[in-house]
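Justification of computing resources. Each target in the renewal requires a structure prediction run like the one illustrated here; the chain below, 171 residues long, is used simply to show the kind of job we budget for.
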Amino acid sequence: MIVLNSRAARRQALVTIIACASLSAACSSNSGDNAKPASVQQRRSVVEKQATPNTPQRAPKQDAAAAEATGEVPQQILALFRDDLARRALVKPETITVVSSTEQQWPDGSLGCPKPGEMYTQMIVPGYRVVLQAGGEKYAYHSDRRGKFVVCANGLALPPAQEQTKSPARE
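Resulting structure tokens:
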């Protein structure tokens, strides 16, 4: 027989006894649906019966789903690239030709064209690589699937071109 001298020791012993009794009752319960199957196959069948077959999920946008399924670059992203190159090369968007376009898995948030000294997310980023031609020059556009892009020139990332504005005429 153990003699407990302090109130804290008696309280700890009581908590331990209650926890053991609860655990013992939970483990020895063999009534109805709460019975635990003995074999792996029985446990697997119980889990499969309890799983919900139709978990609700959001449907992807049709444009994104079509582009992902075929690996083609969406027209909205191509339009962004053409608009940027028209500003950059000072040409009309209609004169720009697509040399190549491929779906890419970029190794990080730099989209395959890191700027020195910059930090990027360290995860695979799905996106596109598109080479456009304007005025005899080729431009490589790297993007994610949402339209964030850089122009990769000789391994250096160039930001999107700003709108070209004409300076006011001098009188």
